[in-house]
Amino acid sequence: xxxxxxxFVDITAEIAWLREDIDAAIARVLDQGxxxxxxxxxxFEAELAACAGASHAIGVxxxxxxxxxxxxxxxxxxxxxxxxxxxxxxxxxxxxxxLGARPVFVDIDPASLTLDPNRAAAAVGGRxxxxxxxxxxxxxxxxxxxxxxxxxxxxxxxxxxxxxRGRAAAxxxxxxxxxxxxGDAGAVVTSDPSVAExxxxxxxHGAQPKYHHQIVGGNFRLDALHAAVLRAKxxxxxxxxxxxRARARRYRELFEAAPVPPELRLPAHDxxxxxxxxxxxxxxxxxxxxxxxxxxxxxxVYYPVPLHLxxxxxxxxxxxxxxxxxxxxCREALALPIHPAITGEMQARVVDEIARFYL
Length: 359
Ligand SMILES: Cc1ncc(COP(=O)(O)O)c(C=O)c1O
What we know:
Number of strands: 9
Strand content: 5-15%
Strand order of the largest sheet: 1-7-6-5
Number of domains: 2
Bound molecules: pyridoxal-5'-phosphate
Structural class: alpha/beta
């Protein structure tokens, strides 16, 4: 190995930059003694709603639970269908399945890797209860339109990319997200008061008032400690997003000047993109990833298996070849390190090593 290691993410650097604010947030919660609910959660929800361009934000325990409770709040259940993308993290489809509904996968646009809105609209039928596009890697997906079928946006990777456009959006604050908590956390944002009310009920076992259960829900609450830390980080999100966009521009400049094959494709440009990930389409992806690992450069494969070919969905009857664009993306996509702490030198090393591999 020649040159310094290039880590895939650097959470300790991000925490170190904001350490005083994070320590103060934790101390506030310890002094208040309100660990579940309380002022930190309420204030975070108000601040997040403003940031997400929605009138309500409801803090929940993870992005997975945000998807689950948003779909549940719309009444998605047994026998229903939800049209979605096969190219996402498992939680997107898992939430649909956990409610007894059936995911209907339609293929992606090969440039943006997001759900193709025309194919999605064409797949809407009598049982369709919702459409679920994913702003994959931080690239805002077009919002499909199919009569009054509600759209839930999976915005787990895209906070700050575009204001809420669907009926609700699910956000994740998993530590590697652009706004990361110190553990699992998420939120539903919506401008529909009835969805907000329903998600608020669902996250606390449907209790209203306490110990009087109007509906069956779960325990999907956001902890006060996470809310306080997220409040400390939220004012810095714009700055960190600008840093991610600057790193993406740098990669584009470096690749333009590098002797890489034309088949190596960079992410589609969209000025709203927030680059939770910078994902290239690479010929010989797996040998390339091994070459980079041997050179001390960490990469990730998002996602090696499309959702329609996951073993747990075998009974849905999809086969290899059913959704060729998503399958090709799963063979070729490689996420390169991108985060606010990556230096120009590190990025140059990544691109140099990629060029060396193809020589
Ligand atoms: C597209 C997408 N949807 C949903 C989730 C689930 O979020 P969480 O990990 O917070 O449950 C993730 C997280 O990785 C994601 O990337």
